[in-house]
Every structure is written in structure tokens, then in C-alpha cells.
Design brief:
Belongs to the nicastrin family. The chain is α/β, with parallel strands linked by helices and 744 residues long. The chain contains 18 helices and 24 strands. The strands form 4 sheets. Strands 11, 12, 13, 14, 15, 16, 17, 18, 19 and 20 form a 10-stranded mixed sheet that branches. An 8-stranded mixed sheet has the order 1-22-9-5-6-7-8-2. A 4-stranded antiparallel sheet has the order 4-3-21-10, covered by helices on one side. 47% of the residues are buried.
Length: 744
Amino acid sequence: MIGQGNEKEKGRMTRLRCYRQFILFILSCISLGASERISSKTYVIVSGNVACIRRLNGTHQVGCSSEINGNVGVLHYINDTDSLNWLINSGPHQPYVALLTSLNFNRDTVQQLRNSKKITGIIVIHTDDSATTPLPDSFSPADKCPGDLYGLYHNNQEYGNCKKVTWNEDGNGMFFEDFEFPISIVTNKNETDYLINNCYLKFNQPTQGVPREYPLCAVQMKSRMAAAKDSETCIRRTNTPTNLNPDKYCDALGDKNVIGFFKDVPEDYKPEKKSIILAMARMDSYSLFENIYPSADNQVSGIVALLAAAEALRKYKDHFDNTTKDILFTFLNGEAFDYIGSTRMLYDMDKGALPLKLKMDHIDRIVEVNQLAYREGGKIWIHADPVSRNDPNISSEINDMISTILDIGKNLSDIVGAVDQTQPLPPASTQKFLQKTLVPALVLTDHKKTFTNKYYNSRFDLAKTISAMVNASDNGYNHVTDQASNLTVAATLLARSLYTLATGSPAPEGLMAEQQSVTHMLYCFLISPNCDLFKQVIPPAREAFDDLASQKSPYPFYVSVYGQINNVTRIIQRLLTHYIGTVEKNHTESCTSSEKASLQLYNYLWMAGPLNSDNKTRTVTCVKSRVTQTKAYSPAFEITDYNGWGGFQYSTWTESSWATNALLLRVFLIPSKAMEVGLLCTDVHFVRGSNPDFGFHGADLFSEQKGRHLVCPPQTKQSLREPSSASQDSGAVIMTMFQINLYQ
């Protein structure tokens, strides 16, 4: 009987445990659903949040990152000196998240906020509305002497470190700062209005200098970056797996260069020494914030001018034969990050890894177009390297090149000027090629000395700042702006100069750039990529058209991480193919829809083609050209046991990785400390009860995050015996605990 009783008791206990587990499961589901409901009511997500991310080089980390669970602070709006001083000198509710206007976000203000030790993050207003985001007089997060450490004049006693000319006078160097807190911009005007009106003004704005009482409106900023210290450390950690699913802490920056030989040549063609004119432009830039890389003057003006010059020259392609020099149109990527593209091109020259096994010996002269949109004195300025002039032969050839371009410019409203011979080259890819071999080389820019671009490598280098802004419509697509007119003349100058340098003959009067092409390229690069020009050159596939239609903003001019080809790179390859290639009717079996690197003499691309008369269908074409891609990827990441991380031979830039849920900005209300503790203690006791099996004693709660106890006052402990209205929803516990942990 005793044995049977024990068996019955065991069965009863087993059933009770099953019931308990089932009930706990149901309660957990209810709690989770309730917490999600409360979360949606508690937080307002800011979807137009664009974060400052972290990047690294061989010696440092730069950019921004948050704590692993995000940084939380009371929102304080700074729109003048008084509001800045109030936070620094009087604000009692630290930490704060500072909300800054476009005019207040500058190095001086940020440094004051950092020094105050009162902030945990910064939000910057950056919308398309000029009223909420007025243009500052200048803003450039680059340094004052861009690219100097890896350039031609590094350690040069006469020209190094901008001794002759400070190129970027407005550079504040913020891009190269390591910020210990997150910084984000908010691009949606409705959300910036909400932050100001529904959060700051409603709950936080001081009343005649007196701080407001709780509840206060707070912001959680989350942008946790995985990488730390420098690229060498990050790459080593990434390459040392510690489990079956290894973490990736960072990725090397890189993409592809685009190169295109102009002349039609036989299949057995081999270039001779000094038989090629190298015509170059740069493709990339940077800014403080992810995917905000407009580059209107910085890159687009030069890209458009060089492409338009290539198109103009195509009409006279039969003038180029085996007695003339070839032109190699080159668009370099990663140049903003210590000359990734040009360095790799020179590296591949040494390795014989370029088409035709191209070497520096094959290069006769170099012409590079840089910033062209803001013309100092209404002119385009010719720059040459004074070090190269120490060679009398090279100096003579440089003078001949300058004289040729000046003469051509006189017939184009006298738009060209030459700088003083003792002035060094501005930051330009040409510097890397001259480091390798001195050849006659010129750089054409819109500035005589200091940059005329006040927004160099910044989010303000926009279509509207270079007088190229139009509406995103058919009328805007065909509207000829002032900038389009100016760049058409610049492209004509470039085309005629390249023609004369390559053939040795004066350029035909009919050699002119197409104003319509320049107009369309400016629109497609700066306003909307969903334009007819881009539709003509993309692959004839529905996916390609859908991708264009989905683009709500211009393509970013950022090199990004190596591995996937950028949209800008792909479209420039296709535009160059379109402009200098020929439509192939016989060998279409060689045609492909994908852009790729190739060592073949000729390459073939399918293009959707122009619209037919019905304005619906297109004439698909196969275009044959000598245009291809080459690597724009630093050799530092390919050389085994590379030990030059602290040197200046190869770029070492990487970008930190981050989790899919690592970028977040949301708004919520926080109560006073006393209320937080009271709510926490009330809810914890109600849900967990007095059962010691839950591991709590009385109403004390240990906070693992900060390693301290929160102790409820006596009156709060007594009230725990009666469930509060807030306790009716078990999810309140989760949300209350979450808010307290975030705030603390």
C-alpha cells in the first residue's frame, strides 16, 4: 500500500510539473505579446536615421560607435549659442543627446559638447527642406591637406604638408576623429519636426532657464560597430576564427576601376612605349554619414566632363590610326582613401595584370580632370608638377601641353588659365603615377590655389550648390542648367586637347561636346538614376529596370567594401562603352549582360538601347569596345604577412561591420528615478510573487549592467501586497526594466 501511495504521489507531482511548465509557457507568450504592445506604444522609431559609422586604417580607428545596447540621453535642441551654453553650464539631467541644426554642427560646437562630458550622442538635422537645413557657408570633414601622407610630396621639404598652398582651407578634419559616442543625421522632415515639437518643446525645453521636471523625453541611439583599434588588428581578428561561425569585424575598402582604350586596333596589337595618353577622373568621395555621398563638384563634374569628351571624340574615331597615340580613359575608385585605385593600377602594371600588359613605359602623357564646377575667375586652371620640371625634357613637354590647351581655350571664351610654375599639384591621382615615373602631366581644376569647393567631401556637395538643381521629372531631365552649359564647354576643351595631344594636329572646329548629353548625365548622377540615359545602357532585363525604378535618391559615390561592384562603377563602365564603343551586329554570341574585369582586347555588352517611336519598347543593342574593369583593391590585403601597416605605401582602409539590428534611433519618455524604482519593485513583486525559488529576496533587485542594487523604500515594499493597475500587464515589467537599464 505504501508503495502504491508513493507511485500515486509521484504521478501527481509529475502532472503538476507538466501543468506548471504549460502555464509558464502560456504566461511567457502572453508576456511577450504584451511587451510588444507596450513597446510599440512606448517608443517612437525614427526611420530617417543615418548613422556615422566606424572606419579604420593601419594605425587608427575613426568615426562613431555606440555602446552595445545603445546610448540614451535626454534630448536637448541646440539652435543658438544660448541653448548650447545652457546644456553645458546648467543642464542637470545628463547625459544628453544634442539635437543640432546644420549651421550648429561644426567642429567647435562638437568639441565644446565633448569637453562638457554631458552628452552621450548627437543628432543633426539634414533634410531636403532648405528652411530646416540651411546651407552653412562652408563644411568639409576632410583635413586641410587631403592625401598628403600618400601623395607625391610626402616628406618633401619644399612642398610637403601643404607648405605652398593649403588646399582645403575649410577642412575641419572631423572625418578622421574617433568619436566615443554615436552621431546621426535625420533626413525626414516630419521626424525632425517630431523631435523638436513633440519631444523637446513639449517635455524638455527649459522655462526661462529653469529645467523641466520629469517626465522627460529621451532618445536611444544605437550604432554599435564591431571593429576596433586599427585595420591590422581587425583583419587579424577576422582571420582567426574562434568557432564554427566566425565573426567578421571589418572589410577592406575597394571596388573596381573602369578603363577604356579609344582606338580600334587589330587582334595582334601590342602597344609601343609612350604610345598612350592617360585621361583620368576620380570616382569616389566620402562624408561623415553612411550612404550620403553626393559629390557634385568633387567627382561628378570631372566624370561628366571626361565622359562627354569621350563621346565627342567618337565622331572622329577614324582620325586615329597606327600613326597616332591611343587615349586611355580611366576612372579611378577609392582615391579618397589614400589612392586605392591608382595605387592598385600601378601595382598591376608591375605584375603584368592589366589588359595589353600595360606598363608605365607605355604612358606618354597624363591629363586629369578634377573639380570643375566652381570656376575661380570663371576659368579652368592648369596645374603641373614643379618637381618634374627639374628634367629639362619633361619641362619642355609640359610647357608645350600648357601652350596647346591655352590656345584651344582662347577659342572657347578664353576659359583657361595656368598657375605659377612653382606651385605643386593639388590632391590628384596624378601624384601617384608621378611617384612611380616622371612623365609630362597636367591636372585641370576649377581652383587656382585653395579649393573653391566649400563642401569638399561632405553631404553638402549637392546639385543645388553647383547650380545643377532641377525637378525630378521629364522637364527636369531635359532642362539645361547653368552648370550643364559650363561643363559642356569644359568637355569641349578637354576633347580638343586630347585630340591634339594624341594626333599632333589641330582639333576640328566641329569637335564639340553635346550639351544634351551633359545635361542628362548631370540629372542622372545628381537628381535621379531612374532616367532615360541610364535606361539605355543597362542590361535588357526586367530586374535592371526595376532596380532603377526603385532608386529614390542618387547613387552614392563611395567606394564601399570590396566584393560587390558599386552601381556608379557599373554605370560608368556602361556609359563609357556606349560613348566610345560600336554597335556589333555579327558577333552577338560574344555579348554579355554583366560587367566584369577582362584581359581580352575587346569586350561586348548587351544594352537595352534607345526608346522606339512607340515610347514603350527599346532596340536592344550589343556594343563592342575596349572598355573593362580592373581592381581597385589595396595590395596590403593580398600580400601575405604584410608588415607595412604603419607606412605610406599602400592604403590600409577598412570599414567596420555591424549587426543587422545595430542601427536604431527611437524616442520615449522617462520618469524620475524614484518613480522608476517604485514601478520596478511593484511589478517585480507582483509577477514573481513571494516564492523564493525565483531567486529574489524581498524587493531588492540586482542590476547586472551596473553592478549595484536598487532598493525599494519601505512604503513601496508595503504596497507590493496589492497589485497596481500598471502590474495588470506582465509586459510592463519587461518594458520598465528595459527603460531603467537603458537610462542607467
